[in-house]
Amino acid sequence: EIVMTQSPATLSVSPGERATLSCRAGQSVSSNLAWYQQKPGQAPRLLIYGASTRATGIPARFTGSGSGTEFTLTISSLQSEDFAVYYCHQYNNWPLTFGGGTKVEIK
Amino acid sequence: EVQLVESGGGLIQPGGSLRLSCAASGFTFSNYALNWVRQAPGKGLEWVSTVSGNGDYIYYADSVKGRFTISRDNSMNTVYLQMNSLRAEDTAVYYCAKKATTGPYNWFDPWGQGTLVTVSS
Q1: Which residues of B touch A42 (CB under 8 A)?
Q2: What is the rounded average pLDDT for all residues in chain B?
Q3: Please, which pLDDT band fits residue A53 given cuts at 50, 70 and 90?
Q4: pLDDT at residue B67 in the model
Q5: B35: exposed, middle or buried (C-beta count within 10 Å: 0-12, 13-18, 19+)?
Q6: Minimal Cα distance from A88: which residue of B?
Q7: Across the beta sheet with A19-25, what order do the strands follow?
Q8: How far is CA A73 from the centre of its chain?
Q9: What are φ and ψ of residue B88, in 5° steps?
Q10: What is the pLDDT of residue A99?
Q11: Percent of chain B beyond pLDDT 90?
């Protein structure tokens, strides 16, 4: 099983600032990595797939990068609606696995 | 618009059984794999199971293998998760999620709203 490790667990950011979230895979997953956003009481929503491709309707302030074992999700200028929990997900190997999540909270 | 609507959750005693359903609409159902993903209260996401579009390929997480069975009825546009020998640690919101593409890789888009399963005496 590929273990996905996200850091930090919690990120305190002021609105308008940049947020940088990290995800590390225990072995290479190539570019087969997705990011999801989850708000309280809601289902997760796809943000990024293929490590760097934004899903339909996702604003340009969300940028995914990386390959192999190191990945980053950058939110360039945090808006109020971006405060949420973010999960990375590798789909390169079975079993499919998720990171533990990064909570982005208002500073 | 793609829609996934889960049902069948509830309170069940340890050792009991429950069947979840996920009714789909807005896409050619038989062309896409469907997945179940769960989230224990206050915890992260855990993939549970996947069934291919025609039902030929099925995968399970080790934590549910031998206890849970995924199936689909393409005439009813519905995917099921039969859960037997339920344990307290199976308590979670269970989400149905569509494989985003018909290609070889399985990321999830969209997700249903989830159904809560509580295993407790």
Answers
A1: 113
A2: 97
A3: very high
A4: 98
A5: buried
A6: B45
A7: A4-7, A19-25, A70-75, A62-67
A8: 5
A9: -55, -35
A10: 98
A11: 98
